[in-house]
Every structure is written in structure tokens, then in C-alpha cells.
Structure prediction request, 605 residues.
Amino acid sequence: MANWDELAEALADYTVSCNTNERLRKMQRDWSRTLHFVCADTGSAFSMLVERGEILSTPEGHVGTPDIVVTTQSETFCDMFWGDLNPVQKYLRGEITVKGSQEDVMRLDAISYVIWPDS
Amino acid sequence: MSGAETAHPVVVALRRSVGTATATATSAGLAFAAIDYLGVVSVLAYAPGATAALAIFIGGLIVLLVSGIFSELNGLYPSAAGIRLYLGRAVGNRTALSVTFTYMTTVVLVIAADAFLIGAAVRHVLGEPAALAYVWIAALLGVALVANLLGVRIAGWVQTVVTYTVLAGTAVLSVVALFHVGGAFQHPLNLFGKGGFSGIQAIAFALFLYAAFEWVTTTAEEARTPPVITRALFIAPVLIWIVSSVFALALVHLVPFSSLHGSAYPQLLLGRAALGTVGELWMLALTVLTALNTFNGGFLVASRVIYAAAREGNLPRQFAWLNLRAVPWVAVTTLATVSAIVAAVVFATGQWLLLVAVGATIEAGIYAIGSLCLVVLRGRETRERPFRLIAGKPLAVFGIVLFSVLFVATGFSDPKNAHHFSVAPIGVIMVLGALSTAYVLIFVPKLQAAAAARTAAARPRRRPPRPQAAAQEPAPAAGSSRPIDG
Prediction:
């Protein structure tokens, strides 16, 4: 089980990786979304506010009305944000569940794919 | 139980979500393509005259069983991964993958068939030489390819309007035709008029008219509430039943079967018979409109499935390459190319009814497999679901038997001659299935091994070890890590 400090560290690294990747920023330039994340094991929650492909903040708790809600184990979130696992594999096995449009689900995965093509 | 399944269901209102009307339109729109007009003619080949409406009605009743089965499966796994996930949980990943790849070929067949049918219809109305039909086919696929590569998305409300326009437009013209003076219903209850097996084959082809309606389950993640998808799964078949029935009755009423049988555009013949040139143009407009759903929905769904399979390591990773509009361009381009080739083969051979038979057979097989999934998962999954089919297990067992019979009925059919049997449809499916299975058994393990080796060679784990774990782990060998590209 990962605690909030570990999640926050992973999110901080993920945010830098996203925001400094020019190709990703160009690809996601039309993507502005509010994402909610729910840790199934700890019950903790956090949000991600994305504006034109840039991650503006990742506050603890749920902020605003979401476009996408992602639910999985806290450990899976940590590994995902560090780029140590392939989110699609977990998703297709039903270990990550998502509420949101198919296009948004693909865009979310595309972030990991562009930052870590070998994950 | 692992992962997210341990969580209590999260009930949240999304900023954008799909309601019953949109989900129903999605379901009906996926099912009702231009090829359905030919599907009705295929039913007529086995169920003479107005008996076709009876076959379509029985087909609709059977489809309601499919609605129940997929509603429960969707309630258990509300995911865009859909049948891939149910199958993976029920019978294992390799079988799920083989079936999914075979299933995806129906998308290519429908895209190719619709391109051919729309091209043929446009050429017919414009009075151009037959050879020019392929120019229209290539142009249609080219426009669909470019639009998809540019990331052009038809808004949800436009798709909804298009679907209801096509359904209502077809129904209205058919009713007008039914009131036309000079026709008479024949053989209203002659389900076995073309042999003892013909009634079963007619029902099997009637099932094809509803085919793909269950793909609405792939939008479960954006549904406003879980019952939205269940409602769509039950309402959409009713809409398709009404429209297909009045269309079949109108055809029987006004157009001789001898004219319909060799035609790739029976809907235009009905339009002309009912309202002259206006009717023909009316039906042409509706036919072209179906392309919006087929090409937009078909390309989108299929290319995303291919993308996910490539990301998972089950297809070459090139299929996951994204362009700057976040479109998996290799997947989209491959789909368009394969569709163009299949359409060219259909154009050259005139075997469009074979596509209907292959599509009907695959759908019957998928429904049998869906029933099997429910039987297996009923024994394994005790979780609460938003929909539980009453007498689900016996009904699912009945579904396995029924859809297996219909699989055989269409698999050995020859819609060009109802008195003949043909191995062509089952042969095509056996070849597709064998190729899928061989690919999964031989190439997928190699792809996954290569992906694992690539990942291991590319970089070590990035996540910092926890303090207590770090003390136990040996230090990484010199040179084993390298910087990560930002």
C-alpha cells in the first residue's frame, strides 16, 4: 500500500515528465480535462487538472467535476506514475477501471506511452 | 480478486456522460449499416414473401436474450475492453485474443462492404459505368482515412441525429411503400417454404440485422448510470426490428424478388418503386448517411482495439504509433488499406452476399461465446451487478446451443441460392480463425518476449525503493542504468 507522500512524489515526477515533453505537449494541445483518481485499497483520492496538455496541479482530494475517474490500487498508481508499468495491460485485465470517454482513456494512456515508449 | 475490483463502486457524475437516447442511438447505429438492406434480402431468400417479417421478429426475440446476457456481462465488467475482458476472465487470455482478432475482422468486412455498397449505389444513381463504382469506393475510404488521421470526430449529438434520421427515413419510406396501390402480401407464414432448414437459416440471417448492437457495451465507461447500457441493449433491437420489418414488407409489396436478388442496392429499387426519382434519392441520401456511422464508428472502435493490443504487446508495437493528433495512424491506415483490398475483391467477384453470410456466422458464434462466458462467470463471480438475467444460467446454456445451431445454419448457407448449401462462409471463418489462433500461439509469445527484453534493456525501475526495501536490495551494477528521456 502506498501512502500519500509516495503518491505525491510519483505525481511530481510524472508532472515534470509530461510538462517538459514537447511532443506530448503538442499532441495534447487540445486536451483540457479534470481527472479524479481513487485508490481502491486506501480510499484516498486525488485530482489532476490538465489545461491544453499541461498538468497544472495534482491536489489531494477531489476538485471540480471530473471528465475521467480512474480507480485502482495505490501501488498501481505509484508504479504507473513512475512509468514502471504498462497501464493498458492492467486496464485490459480489469485491474484499472476508468469512467470516461474512450478517447480520453486512450489519451491518458498516450501520455505514458509518449513519455516512456518502452514501458 | 485484484486491483480495482476490491473497491466499492464509485458513483460520480462526469462532466460529459452518455444518456439512454445517445446510447440507444449508438447501439442502433452500429447495427444498422448499408449492408443491412442486403441482409433483409438475404432473409427474403430463405423466408419467402411476408414470412421474412416473421423471421425478423423471431430473430428480434432471440436478440433480446443476447441483450440480457450482455447486460449482465457488462454489469460485471463495464469496460471498453468488452468481450475481450469477459472472455479473458472466462476462458483465458489466449482464447480471448484469438476470438477478439477474428471478431475484429467483421469490422473490416462491414467497412469494406459498406464502402462497396455505397459506391455502387452512388454510381447507379448517377448513371455512371459500373467500373466507376470502385472510384467512389476508394474516394469514400480515402475521405474516411484522412478524417480519422486528422482526428476529426463527429460529435455525439450528430451521430445520434444521423442514426435516428436513417431509421426514421427508412421506416417512413417503407410505410409509404406499404400504402402504395398495386401490391399484395404473399406467403405471410411460410417459414419452411424453401425446405426444412430454410426457416432456421432465415432466422439466422435475421439475426445479422441486429449484429453489432452489443458493441454499445464498449461505451459503458461513459454511461451516466449503469442501467443506461442495459436500456440501450433492449431498446435498440426493438427499433431495428420495427424498421427492418416494415422495410422487408415494403420490398415484398413492391419489388419482385428476382429484381432484388442480384442487386447491391435493394433500398434504391424500393425508393424508386415507391416514390420514383424522389424515393431513389431519398434512399441514396440515407445510404450515404449510414457511412458516417460505419466509417466514424468502425474506424474508431477497430483502430483503438488495435492500439490497445499493440500497447499490450500482442501486436507489433508500430500499431501503437501515434501522430501529433493522438491518432494511432498505422492502425488507421492499415484498416483503410485492408478495407480497400476487401472491397476490391468484392467489387471484382460480386460476392457481397458472402460478406453477409460471413458476418451473420461470426455474430452467431460471438453470441454463443457470450453465452458461454455468462455460464462460466456465473460460477465464479458473486459480486453484485446492476443487471442480473433471470434464470441466467439455463438461458445462457440454451443460448450456447441455439447460437451454435445458427452458426452452422449460416456457416453452410448460400444466400444466392436458398436450395443450396455452401462451405464458403464457414471456410472463410475457419481460415480467419486459424490465422488468428496461429498468430496468438506463435507470434504473440515472441512479441511479448521481445517487449520484455526491450523494457529490461532500456532502463531500470524508476520508482525509488522504500527505505526498508532499499537496505535489502543489492546496488545496481555499474552501467545498468541510463538517463530517461524527458
Remarks:
- Chain B has a mean pLDDT of 85.
